[in-house]
Amino acid sequence: MKNKKALTVTVALSSLVFFLSGCVQVKNGKPYGFVYDYLARPGQAVMQWLAQLFGNNYGWAIIGLTVIVRLILLPMMINQQRKSTYQQEKMSAVKPQLAVIQERQKAAKTQEEKAAASNDMMALYKANGISMTGGIGCLPLLIQFPVFSALYYAIRYSPELSSAKFMGIALGHSSFLLAVLAFLSYLAQGYLSMIGIPDEQKKTMRTMLVVSPVMILFVTMSAPAGLGLYFFVGGLFACLQTLIINYFRPRIRREVEEELKKHPIKTPTPTAAKPVKATEQTVETNRPTNRNARPNEGRNAGKQQRHHH
What we know:
This protein is mainly α and 309 residues long. 75% of the residues lie in helices and 3% in strands. The chain has 12 helices and 4 strands, in the order H-E-E-H-H-H-H-H-H-E-E-H-H-H-H-H. It has helices at 2-21, 34-53, 58-93, 95-107, 111-127, 139-157, 159-162, 176-193, 199-221, 225-262, 275-286, 297-308; strands at 25-27, 30-32, 165-166, 169-170. Helix 2 (34-53) packs across helix 6, helix 3 (58-93) runs antiparallel to helix 6 (139-157) and helix 3 (58-93) packs parallel to helix 10.
């Protein structure tokens, strides 16, 4: 399930890079297009308004925008992370049954046996209400796409934003420092998410621990520093929400235990591989070679032998 989460984040961030690469067209030095008219220009207006609130400081305006967006998304993201934690706890509960199926899968010698083991694994998940994706989704990231785009193009095509500086960092140019800080903030979030997780599950989470921060690093290194600042502050918020979910993790475990008392783990009846069926199919494929023989040929041969005697 964690591998699916890594794939989800990778695809989402890759889509962001593709989306930002060429959505605004420029003619005679002036940008135009749907994204510029409906995202970049409103983004510029919002940033200018926020900058005025912070003493014409666009760096603090970006931080303020990040705080607003993340506070709006915080309940959704905590709820999603809570569902993911709930699924992790239920996965731990079905571990003995899952281990038996996985051993069958490793020992399978035919495609029929492998398919039967896979069907049993899916049936085990379904019978116990376990999601194949572990409660993971990319909706919060997708919701932020318009914000990413608005901020990116607002910085790129706004003279005030592109020339602004924050603590000596030019917001209109890429910043290695902010890229590294964004990387470290999401790496810290990944580390915090592993606190209180069983060692067996930590092994499956290691890929996710690296993939998401590396993708963040890749995006921020090629984007204006203003976007890197957005990711850095967003990573700090991600750490905060992870700490919140870690605080509630014992309560979630108790909820899972109470549910398992009322509804014990169900173990579906194993699916038979039926290797005989495959043999029968082989025999069926070989039968057409003997169909040229007439049905009564053997009977007639016997009659001829008796007549000869």
